[in-house]
Design brief:
heterodimer; A: mainly alpha; Cytochrome Bc1 Complex, Chain D, domain 2; 5 domains; two-stranded antiparallel sheet; 57% helix; B: mainly alpha; 7 helices; elongated
Chain lengths: 513, 186
């Protein structure tokens, strides 16, 4: 009885997802079919100066073909200079209105390309409501976003090691896998793919062969509900991105790392409290003198060790993580978006300091990126991140409505807190380590691209500097500077390679003078 | 009374324990922290200095002065300046492998995030739909002069990259952009 029920539920689910997809395709085809291509062309050629719903450098283009004729638009886009020269009044008027800012001509666009663009500007809904509308129609069809969230969790825990939604990893991409396989097939496969193959299923054998007979783990522990949730996730992941704030606000902490960390620190508390209670019991409750003596010695040793550790930490700021004036995240910039460290820390290649980027560097991107659309958590939602970006504009005086710097604005420096800071008596130079030695930033600063907030990863003690100098070989090849020194060094030490220390990287005067 | 003391001890010990975790938002104390062996007497880079404009140590060069080793760039930041640079500005560098390699190294660092490593306008930010409208170099009529001008001042939505690159490095990047464009035009 139960399995029958299950069956119909799954069928209903598939049906509903199918009808959802169908609905969506109908929706799209009503838009002339080319809007999608048009979006690509628009993004590549026009988006630098135009948005659909807002003035950028040029005017907003949503619904432009209601304002102008098709012929006019073709002529304008292909060569607006020629159109103006031909004396067209509209063309001249719009040019004057925009302070005679010339628009690039696009003779390389074909008529078809331009029609595609116009299809896109007329039907702007294509991009946004896809997810928004998707979410509401998904809700109407009874697809539970909680189920999708659950599916995501199970997927990330069990499958993500080998599968991604888009793009092959070890196994094939799983987005919309329900479109190519039935629910029963998927259930059988996920629970035990070996047995399923052994049963002679042709598809199962084919996909196994296609992936070089790479065995997939069997998951007998997953319930039918779990598998349904996974399928819901692979088919409707887009709801999550559309409704991320509410989903996260619903108490589902998708911050998988934070939780275990906290629980481990609570574990240590509990252990410590138990030890404390034991000690108290020994002193106050027990009559055994020997036990008291042993405990006293143990406590004294412990205190001595703690005191020593505390004194050794004087002046060592490992782990220091101050609150910065803008919640600038290296994880988002250098990690997710893969911006090179030296794009911002551009002094590292030539100078002692790496430097903190001045605001004009931020503005290279943030002139255009005024809103945050990445993943959010329950503490940090979109409004929080948008507010942080606004702080850049406040510092430099940028009007994000008019897209211009405000004239006569009194700019305020952003007061970043310095984290890494050697005492004044030690000399350390980035260019020597980054450009000459070719060291990666991460060797000393740790996985910065994973840090939301930067902290000091290394101790920055003298022992730390010298350890590395003793261990690291010089990069002698392809550096003319070293040809002579290299000869001398290899004569002196009778070796081909020389460490930094052998070149003199342990002499006091190299770092203290 | 005795049990009262016990309770107080336990509670306060737990309170101390709980209070010592969490993030390290303050610096450790420093041995002889206030002496000038630790804190520089001269102004440290980027530090706050009360007497300077905007209370910043980092100041721009005084108007009309030229820092050693820098070459002033006289083309104005305008459409006319762009056209002038396009027609009349030429690279002082020779086309060599060393220059091209350095150009590639710098291009991948500073430009590829938007323009893509091939110069086809498909950098990471574009693919992630964060920053749109980056052109393919082959669709633009650009010359070495105009590329240099665009690095100096930016153009439309592209910002200036002059503060991140020195004059020679800009020319190396220009050389590499021209190389990419020729590859794309093939």
């Amino acid at each position: 009885m139960k399995s029958v029920l299950q069956h119909t539920k799954i069928q209903r689910f598939i049906l509903s997802s199918l009808s959802f997809i169908l609905l969506f395709t109908v929706h799209l085809s009503a838009q002339n079919g080319d809007a999608k291509k048009g979006k690509g062309i628009f993004n590549a050629n026009c988006a630098a100066c135009h948005k659909l719903d807002k003035k950028l450098i040029g005017p907003a283009l949503e619904g432009i073909s209601e304002k102008r004729t098709k012929e006019w638009l073709h002529a304008w886009i292909k060569d607006n200079n020629a159109l103006r020269a031909s004396g067209d009044a509209d063309a001249i008027a719009i040019y004057e209105e925009f302070n005679k800012m010339p628009m690039t001509p696009f003779p390389q666009l074909s008529d078809q390309d331009i029609d595609d663009i116009l299809a896109y500007t007329d039907n702007k809904p294509e991009a946004k409501p896809q997810s928004g509308g998707g979410a509401s129609s998904a809700a109407a069809l009874g697809i539970d976003s909680l189920q999708v969230v659950k599916g995501k969790k199970i997927f990330n825990a069990n499958c993500a090691a080998c599968h991604k939604l888009d793009g092959k990893l070890i196994g094939p991409a799983l987005r919309n896998v329900a479109d190519r396989r039935t629910a029963d097939w998927l259930k059988a496969w996920i629970k035990d793919n070996n047995a399923f193959r052994a049963s002679g299923d042709a598809d199962a054998i084919a996909v196994y062969e296609e992936n070089n007979k790479m065995p997939m783990t069997a998951f007998p522990q997953l319930s039918d509900e779990d598998i349904k949730a996974i399928i819901a996730f692979t088919s409707h992941e887009d709801i999550l991105t559309a409704k991320a704030p509410t989903v996260a606000g619903g108490g589902e902490g998708n911050d998988g790392i934070a939780t275990p960390k906290e629980s481990t620190s609570w574990m240590t508390y509990i252990v410590l409290v138990v030890i404390l209670l034991l000690v108290l019991w020994v002193y106050l409750g027990s009559k055994n003198e020997f036990l008291k003596l042993v405990t006293t010695i143990a406590l004294l040793l412990g205190a001595g060790y703690a005191g020593y550790a505390w004194m050794m930490s004087i002046g060592v700021d490992q782990g220091y993580k101050p609150i910065q004036p803008i919640a600038f995240s290296h994880k988002i910039h250098a990690g997710d978006n893969k911006i090179d460290c030296q794009y911002c820390h551009s002094n590292a290649k030539h100078s002692k300091l790496s430097g903190i980027p001045s605001v004009n560097v931020c503005m290279n991107c943030h002139k255009s990126i005024s809103e945050y659309n990445g993943p959010v958590t329950s503490e940090k939602d979109k409004a929080f991140y948008d507010g942080e970006i606004q702080k850049i504009y406040k510092a430099i005086g940028w009007d994000s409505e008019k897209l211009a710097y405000i004239e006569g604005y009194k700019q305020k420096p952003i007061q970043w807190k310095r984290i890494h800071n050697l005492p004044d008596f030690a000399y350390y130079n980035h260019s020597q380590h980054v450009t000459v030695a070719g060291l990666k930033c991460q060797t000393c600063h740790g996985p910065v691209e994973e840090m939301d907030e930067v902290y000091q990863y290394s101790e920055l003690t003298m022992g730390w500097c010298l350890d590395c100098h003793k261990k690291t070989d010089l990069k002698l090849e392809s550096n003319e500077y070293y040809t002579k020194i290299h000869e001398e060094l290899s004569k002196k030490y009778g070796v081909e390679k020389a460490t930094v220390a052998e070149m003199g990287g342990r002499e006091c005067g190299k770092c203290h003078y | 009374m005795k049990s009262f003391i016990k309770i107080i001890t336990v509670v306060s010990l737990i309170a101390t324990l709980v209070s010592c975790t969490g993030e390290k938002r303050e610096r450790q104390i420093q041995y002889m922290g206030d002496t000038d062996m630790y804190d520089a007497v001269p102004y440290e880079a980027y530090s706050k200095v009360k007497i300077l404009p905007n209370e910043m140590e980092a100041q721009r060069p005084v108007a009309g002065t030229v820092a050693r080793g820098k070459i002033p760039y006289d083309y104005p930041n305008s459409e006319a300046g762009y056209q002038l640079a396009k027609d009349s500005l030429h690279s002082p560098l020779q086309l060599t492998k060393a220059n091209l390699d350095q150009g590639k190294y710098l291009f991948d660092m500073y430009c590829a995030i938007c323009h893509g490593t091939k110069g086809d306008g498909q950098g990471t930010l574009v693919q992630r739909e964060k920053f749109l409208g980056v052109p393919n170099y082959k669709d633009r009529e650009i010359t070495e002069g105009s590329i240099y001008h665009v690095i100096m001042y930016g153009r439309n939505m592209m910002g200036s990259h002059a503060s991140q690159l020195e004059a020679k490095e800009r020319w190396q990047v220009v050389q590499y952009v021209e190389h990419l464009r020729n590859e794309l035009l093939k």
